[in-house]
Amino acid sequence: MNEHSAQIDSLPKEILLGKLTLTTSRPMNFDQTHLLRGYIGSVFPQYDLLHNHEGKESRLLYRYPLIQYKIIQGFPIILGIGEKAIQILEMLSSTITKLVIHGKAIPIQEKDLETATFPFGISSEERRYFFITPAILLNSQNYKNYKNSTPEEQNQILKKCLESNLISTSKGLEYTVPARIQARFSLDIEPVSLKGEDMLGFQGQFFVNFHIPDFLGIGKSSSRGYGTCLQI
For a Cys staple, 135 with which of 87, 131, 212, 217, CB 3.0–4.6 Å? Predict the structure, then answer.
């Protein structure tokens, strides 16, 4: 490794992650992720990290979600970023015994909380990832441009949006990106409906010169499980 590469690899930020995996009496579906989030947030409204709202008016907090809900292969997973979020996961692990979805109780049979630090940030080498849940990478304006563009133009729009979403995530995690993010991808369109609005999700593999911890969400509605990444 040359001196420049060594300098680049010294630049990622170490972030502390907690992953609480629940084994329930029956498997759950990805489409129930928002219900999982809603139930946990309603039981513990005093913790704004769980639902990203504050005050009596339940005002939405516009920030990168430090607690993210996933349902992966039937298992509910709650990801926490940073010490405060992990303290909340520890409380959940010692407290909750069931989930209530559509008014029906689902007993929790096992709880497994793992914590570790991972690098997050620019890398000297290209890394390969997979969106294991649909990533919502386009905002409303980019979506209009994307729909009215040629396939080549669509790829350029999607490339810029993927890179921009990584920059936005970095800002939310208080990391300043010191070099250009460069991404390429092989993604398939996965239509999604978010709060009754039809949107485009993207699923598949991408390559980028960036360290992304497993299970971190990239893009819109990452708190509801969208855009969950795994390195492959």
Answer: 131
